[in-house]
Design goal:
Blueprint: E1 2-10, H1 14-32, E2 35-40, H2 45-51, H3 57-64, E3 68-73, H4 88-99, E4 104-110, H5 123-126, E5 131-137, E6 149-151, E7 158-160, H6 167-182, E8 187-192, H7 198-211, E9 218-223, H8 224-233, E10 240-243, H9 245-259, E11 266-270, E12 276-280, H10 297-309, H11 314-329, H12 349-362
Parallel strand pairs: 1-2, 1-3, 3-12, 5-10, 8-9, 8-10
Antiparallel strand pairs: 4-5, 4-11, 6-7, 11-12
Helix pairs in contact: 1-10, 1-11, 1-12, 6-7, 8-9, 10-11, 11-12
The structure holds nicotinamide-adenine-dinucleotide, 3-isopropylmalic acid (IPM) and magnesium ion.
Residues 249, 253 line the site of magnesium ion.
């Protein structure tokens, strides 16, 4: 099979981890006889520097002509003082999500067996492991609601955002969450703030209606503040966590850290046609960029999700996931995963890529 993928490495650690993801993809392409044509495009800060805009037309057109987008990360201190709508995140990532209607964001967070010690959780909690899928609504809510702005001056200056959800937006993301739960542990936890927000009251109502179509799936509701707490106390009791845009952003960072690092959490953002953008859940990590020490696993697992959800290449995706799990459980860890006093020595970004490629080549 032959496919076309738009590669948008972006800023900070984006290009470093993308290099390793490309090597890993090359290894599975050979193994599974796939032909993928990669076209690279500027996005984010680098696009501001090279083209004067975070999302050049050439990048958008390139994405439109592809089967999927493999995305690194955007943003950094260099562009933080630009007007908000011209910054990499607001000017490139959110418009891309909106343009392609990538409403369904999947962020799987698993505490890999044998890696319990990486989690900052207390041992009696982490030893039970966890396997959570955050299903985050990605093109609505307070991120996209209008009006949004800033007015007035001096003491009277004010700013506002609008949180807004329609029934159909809630319904389609809820349905995705229930379908995902059917092939997992048949449980959906819907996260909201229905004791305060009108959007959450509607959210709860619609989720209940969708749940009625899925009698095999258990539904529980939880407030966002309680959810952040229960995740620390009993993460193994969660299966699918269904979240609105803002709550999913927060919950997924927490889930990432519970596995040990932001650098482990991949994500898939898809539309109703199966087209998707695949990116690590974390950001451009300016604090470690350029040092060759970033963890490439989230980017590599995002590439695996791309193979599974947009290119329909499940076996190749699984091969990558198994190689990553093997590398981690054999003690191949980047620096941020290693606690003081541990016997592990930190691997570089490239060494992680090397071992994962090697395990793919050795696999049957
Ligand atoms: N999708 C995206 O492009 C995206 C996502 C989140 C943040 N951002 C942007 O990235 C910039 C930095 O944001 P931030 O510091 O809040 O979040 P961040 O996720 O970039 O970093 C948070 C912490 O996690 C660490 N980390 C993240 N990824 C890592 C990896 N692969 N390996 C090892 N450690 C890793 C960082 O070193 C840092 O200590 C900001 O401009 C922000 O807007 C972009
Ligand atoms: C960079 C930012 C706009 C983005 C978000 O808030 O969605 C990021 O934090 C994420 O989680 O993908
Ligand atoms: Mg985030």
């Amino acid at each position: 099979m032959s496919y076309r993928v738009a590669v948008l490495a972006g800023d900070g650690i984006g290009p470093e981890v993308m290099t390793q993801a490309r090597r890993v993809l090359q290894a599975v392409e050979q193994k599974f006889n796939l032909v993928i044509d990669y076209q690279e495009y500027d996005v984010g800060g680098i696009a501001i520097d090279n083209h004067g805009t975070p999302l050049p037309n050439s990048t958008l057109r390139g994405c439109e002509q592809s089967d999927a987008i493999l995305f690194g990360s955007v943003g950094g201190p260099k562009w933080e003082n630009l007007p908000p709508e011209q910054q990499p995140e607001r000017g490139a990532l959110l418009p891309l999500r909106g343009h392609f209607e990538l409403f369904c964001n999947l962020r799987p967070a698993t505490l890999h067996p044998g890696l319990e010690a990486l989690s900052p959780l207390r041992a009696d909690i982490s030893e039970k492991g966890f396997d959570i899928l955050v299903v985050r609504e990605l093109t609505g809510g307070i991120y996209f609601g209008k009006p949004k702005g800033r007015e007035g001056s001096g003491d009277q200056e004010f700013a506002y955002d609008t949180m807004r959800y329609s029934r159909s937006e809630i319904e389609r993301i809820a349905r995705n969450a229930f379908i995902a739960a059917q092939s997992r542990r048949q449980k959906v936890t819907s996260v909201d703030k229905a004791n305060v927000l009108a959007c959450s009251v509607l959210w709860r109502e619609v989720v209940e209606q969708v749940a009625a179509e899925f009698s095999d799936v258990e539904l529980e509701h939880i407030y966002i503040d309680n959810a952040t707490m229960q995740l620390l106390k009993r993460p193994n009791e969660f299966d699918v966590m269904l979240c609105s845009n803002l709550f999913g952003d927060i919950i997924s960072d927490e889930c990432a850290m519970l596995t040990g690092s932001m650098g482990l959490l991949p994500s898939a953002s898809t539309n109703s046609k199966g087209f998707g953008l695949y990116e690590p859940a974390g950001g451009s990590a300016p604090d470690i960029a350029g040092k060759g020490v970033a963890n490439p696993v989230a980017q590599i697992l995002s590439a695996a999700m791309m193979l599974r959800y947009s290119l329909n290449q499940n076996a190749a995706a699984q091969c990558i996931e198994e190689a990553v799990a093997k590398a981690l459980s054999n003690g191949y860890l980047t620096g941020e995963l290693i606690s003081p006093g541990s016997e592990h020595t930190a691997k570089t970004t490239k060494q992680m890529g090397d071992i994962i490629v090697q395990y793919i080549n050795e696999s049957n």
